[in-house]
Write a structure and sequence with these properties.
Layout (H helix, E strand, L loop, with lengths): L13 E5 L3 H13 L3 E5 L2 H8 L17 E5 L7 H11 L8 E5 L4 H10 L3 E4 L4 H13 L42 H8 L1
Helix pairs in contact: 2-3
């Protein structure tokens, strides 16, 4: 049995959660804490950049004092969207570029999902985020399942499984299906119009 603080103890993951909604911040914070993660919550993309030391300020925290294993951000926020935050982290930061970023949204828009995944998002979750989503992400980070060479190949959306319409996850392997969204295949869309 590993003792906390011993070399064999599993390190606690530190997640930076970014959302302008107080309710959503509290929900994601609670889910992450239930999953034994250390959580830092901020209310905007600008605050996230300040926390990470990417805002250009001299007194901002640097990488030496900030160890983040995962960034979860809402897509739709005033000022700076989650997509813009993702771009800044992936394109402008050599230090944080390898940190997985997960985008969350209450809107199921295929073009948005695709754009985020192409820009380097690790996953795209539909709100409300569920405990199973958080546990899956934690397992992914802990196990480091994806090797760097394979990382981009799993980003493309290969198929849509309509057998689980209640799924809240928009990862490339399990997209939710809702007949009212643009996720219908051309054949099923044609049938729906008839």
């Amino acid at each position: 049995m590993a003792i906390a603080g011993s070399p064999s103890a599993a390190p606690q993951l530190h997640v930076l959660a970014v959302d302008d909604s107080l309710v959503d911040r509290k929900v994601i914070e609670r889910l992450l804490k239930i999953s034994s993660c250390k959580v830092t919550v901020v209310e905007s993309g600008t605050r996230a950049l300040q926390y990470l030391g990417l805002d250009g300020e001299n007194d901002a925290l640097g990488f030496d004092s900030v160890k983040v294993n995962l960034i979860m951000t809402d897509y739709s926020m005033p000022g700076m969207t989650g997509y813009e935050l993702l771009k800044k982290i992936k394109q402008e930061s050599s230090v944080f570029r390898e940190i997985p970023v997960v985008i969350m949204s209450s809107e199921n828009v295929l073009t948005r999902i695709d754009r985020c995944l192409e820009e380097g998002a690790e996953d795209f979750l539909l709100k409300p985020v569920k405990l199973a989503d958080v546990r899956r992400l934690k397992d992914f980070i802990v196990k480091g399942k994806v090797k760097e060479g394979e990382k981009r190949s799993h980003k493309r959306i290969r198929s849509i499984d309509c057998s689980s319409p209640l799924s809240a996850t928009c990862s490339p392997m399990s997209l939710p299906c809702d007949p009212s969204t643009s996720l219908l295949s051309p054949l099923s869309a044609k049938k729906a119009r008839l």
